[in-house]
Amino acid sequence: MTTESSAQIAPDLARTQLTTRSLSPQNSWKLFLASFLALYFELVIIRYLSTEVRAFAYLKNLPLIASFFGIGLGMILGAPHKSLRSAFPAVGLVLFVVTAFAGVFHLRHIPLPRADYYVWGSFPDVSKVVIPLRFLSEILSILALVVVFFLVLGGIVGEYLAQLEPLRGYGINLLGSLAGVGVFTGLAYLSLPPLAWTFLGFLCLVPFFRQSRLALALFMLTVAATSRIEPTTFWSPYYRIDLHPYPQPAGWSTTPAYELEVNHDFHQHILNLSPDFLSRYADFEPNHSAQTNYQIPYHVMPHPRQVLVVGAGTGNDVAGALRHGAEHVDAVEIDPVILKLGKRFHPEHPYASPRVTIYNDDARAFFKKTHNTYDLIVFGFLDSHTLLSSLSSLRLDNFVYTRESFQEAARLLRPEGAIVVSFSSGRSFVNQRMYATLKRAFGESPQVFEAGYVQGLSFVVRKIHPAPPVEGLTEISSQIANKNSGNLIATDQWPFLYLANRRIPMSILWIVVLFLMGAFYLVRKTVTLPRLASRESLHLFFLGAGFLLLETKGVMELSLLFGSTWTVNAVVIASFLGMGLLANALVKFHPFPRSIAYAVLFLLLLFSVLLPYSLLGGLSGPLKVLAAAVIVGLPVFFSGMIFSRSFRDVTSPAQGLGVNLLGAVVGGTLENGVMIGGTLSLGILAVLVYAF
């Protein structure tokens, strides 16, 4: 046989062998399971870290970036080296032990440099050197553990992806990822604790490590480390919730107050403020300090008939409305478990009243849905201790405290109605921004009262005339108005109430820069750069960056349209994966010209950048869903078509998908630019990235 004949036969033989392997059910099943584990553990670690190491509650996309980097590099490197695979169980044990026992290791409240970004648990710059160094070293050490953990999982995915035809393998990868989202969403819905998360995850790892007794033993130890269950600890889709009762005073038969913590930080009290209790125990704390705060709305608007409470929590504001004679109260609370705790433990049982209607929903979503009008709208202490999504720099409550949100609330007021915003931050620039935002929303200056409770302020806006003086309250409206708060207000386009200026906080910037430097060094040491610098690889790299920006943009936009609930976020992420799966199937069976897909994608992105989303808020339910599908879903679909069309012809599927995930790392870091340019910048960045 001639050399030329051999050269022709070799590729055909390789394709035949690949086709044979592609039909292997075992390869397909293991790729599905590995893909499931990669996304499932990604969600587990993001949720668990943000709960136990408080810094990650506000830096949640850092574990996302670290996991993407680990998975991507693992895919590029292929099947994990024996030594790395052997170390994986120990790395997992250390990562989960450090997380579960963060308090023991003094990691729960890592001091955060707080000069330009306010978070609960941040501290003054006691030392301008020590605190930043500790913050950087501890955060980067945890991220390094995350990278190594996902490096192995990514390698396992790459090992089986390499044995399948590209589009078939990618389709199975998407199905596994979709299953990971679905299963973790189910666990969140059931309010199950970390023990359930780790038990399921490490059980599914057994098929890949069943020949190592040591690995199985370490998996069991890891699950055991997360097994501590306390009767006063509850898990919601958003938070770890701890409930601490206050001692009963002599002669009183029930618990008069509870302290409720979320993710190890104070969130609210459950208080008995009934006249019966206060008349007998006037000095009992914290009830004594809190009573004035919950009376302020009814000094402003005595005897309101219809009351709306958003951020109703466990029911203190609702109980206050009932005590002051409200005929009906609509109570809106986003967290279903906090609602259940209010029903079960609140001493005044406000949620049992037939005069109360409970809505487990996001405040913005409720403003858009309801047709009711109110004499009084009360914003309870909504201050969030977590982010909207792992894809986003926004807090859960960011879109509630914007000009547009207050304007939506104002439309629900009756002619002589009033709005009272209870707010606690402890930082002057945040209070000034709240004042300026309310002033811009209503066209008049709000009154501000010191509540004398949990550093709280009450911002009051009335439609007809100012609230009368209240005995025992200090009005500080003039002090806040006279301070220079600049022209920066919170809007739907720039909703960063807690950010001092339009810039990325130095704490985030340093972490991102140092992480990227370390990532680049690791890539240089483990991968030959020419493999990553090819035209094919760079194309897939930028597609990954663009897709993550699209995802983040979609989460923010759909949160505005449908609310910032965990169900919306889960559906959005699952829908994006589903769009990718649909696009992949279409390309597999009916190839679509990439140039046309690019043209449609750019048109859709430009349209979404120019479209004012306020126009969509007034649409009816079906029309709003259709509009969201067109504006958010179609760009994801055409982006998926472009990727699948490019991925179809790659020489190495595992490397191609790995490079794509490395691009997602860059997309995740670019997302921080939203703090400078606002939500509009995500669409602009996506256009620029896809242009490459």
Q: Please, could you describe this protein's structure?
A:
With 692 residues, the protein is α/β, with parallel strands linked by helices. The protein folds into two domains: 30-232 and 499-691, Up-down Bundle (Growth Hormone, Chain: A); 294-385 and 403-482, Rossmann fold (3-Layer(aba) Sandwich), CATH 3.40.50.150. The protein is 59% helix and 10% strand. It contains 27 helices and twelve strands. The chain has helices at 3-22, 25-52, 55-58, 61-77, 82-100, 130-161, 166-189, 194-209, 213-225, 275-280, 287-300, 316-323, 336-345, 363-369, 403-410, 428-442, 477-482, 506-526, 529-532, 535-562, 566-589, 594-610, 614-617, 621-647, 653-670, 674-677, 680-691; strands at 233-235, 240-245, 257-262, 265-271, 306-310, 328-332, 356-359, 374-379, 413-424, 447-450, 456-462, 474-475. Helix 22 runs antiparallel to helix 27 (680-691). The longest helix is centred in the N-terminal third of the chain and has 32 residues, at 130-161. Mean pLDDT is 87; it is low at 1-21, 120-127 and 385-392.
Rg, rounded, reads 27 Å
> How large is the share of residues in beta strands?
5-15%
Text of the CATH class of the largest domain: Mainly Alpha
Q: Main sheet: which strands, in order across?
A: 7-6-5-8-9-11-10-12
The biggest sheet, with number of strands, parallel, antiparallel or mixed sense and barrel status, is: 8 strands, mixed
CATH architecture assignment of the largest domain = Up-down Bundle
- Give the terminus-to-terminus CA distance: 46 Å
The helix content, as a percent range, equals: 55-70%
CATH topology of the largest domain: Growth Hormone, Chain: A
User: Which ranges are low-confidence, i.e. pLDDT below 50, for 5 or more consecutive residues?
Assistant: 1-21, 120-127, 385-392
Overall mean pLDDT? 87
Total strands: 12
Structural class: alpha/beta
